Amino acid sequence: MKKTIAALVVLATLGMLAPTVHAAPFTIDHFAQPNTGQAVSVTDTGSAFNTTTGLAGVVGGSRTLQVDVTASAYGQSSSLIVTPAAPGALSLSNDSGQNGVGTITWDANGAGLGGVDLTDGGNLSHLQATILASDLDLGFRVDITETAATGGSTAFWSTNLGPGVSFVSQPLASFTNAGAVDFTKVDKIVLTLSGPPAQDATLDLVEVAPEPATLGLLVLGGLALVRRRRSA
Q1: DSSP assignment, residue 148?
Q2: Among 157, 158, 151, 211, CA closest to 186
Q3: Whole-angstrom Cα distance, residue 34 to residue 86?
Q4: SS3 of 82, please?
Q5: Which residues is 221 bridged to in the sheet?
Q6: Is the per-residue pLDDT at 224 higher than 80?
Q7: If you average pLDDT over residues 131-146, what whole number do you get?
Q8: Does domain 25-209 have CATH number 3.40.640.10?
Q9: For residue 165, what are the CA distances in angstroms to 116, 209, 217?
Q10: Low-confidence winner among 125-134, 136-145, 165-174, 213-222 (lowest mean pLDDT)
Q11: What is the Cα–Cα distance from 164 to 175, expressed in whole angstroms?
Q12: Domain chopping of the chain, boundaries
């Protein structure tokens, strides 16, 4: 038994050390372009937006930020800010007493992405985001729209992330209306972040990637198999 477990541990270690070939993730935005800080803020009520173009490493070369708030008894503000200093970050910040909704749109400044293949020929399957910080519950929604030439349908995924969540990975196939959308011919991607009063949330990467590694699950499954055989 001990020798078998040791062998499994060695195999798992070798699996982690051995080089593997994976499809490179498709970067939607890493928010780290030099000298392209971007910010939009609304005080008390209303909405505002700002578009920055010519961004390298961003799908479509541009992003539009928009922030919306409802009237606050305290006259506070909400802001959506891109800080380009490494590692690059996007932050939604709500003052006390103010609810804020921030929206990031990637559509080549309204011209459309022209049929981007988010799956890289079927090698990529999960929408992923890295969250650096979130001190309160964070509403997180992604809408993906295919080109009008292939139907123009939209698939979306929406969830409420608890504080401290650091990584999001969601299969594209699980998006609502995914069956009606061709993810190989995408024209627009929209990320919506929403938070309660005093929310501060920061993320630094949005991408589409292969399914996350399941090595740990394989090792646990192997140990369970060993136990069953010994019992038998």
Answers
A1: G
A2: 151
A3: 9
A4: strand
A5: none
A6: no
A7: 91
A8: no
A9: 29, 19, 21
A10: 213-222
A11: 24
A12: 25-209
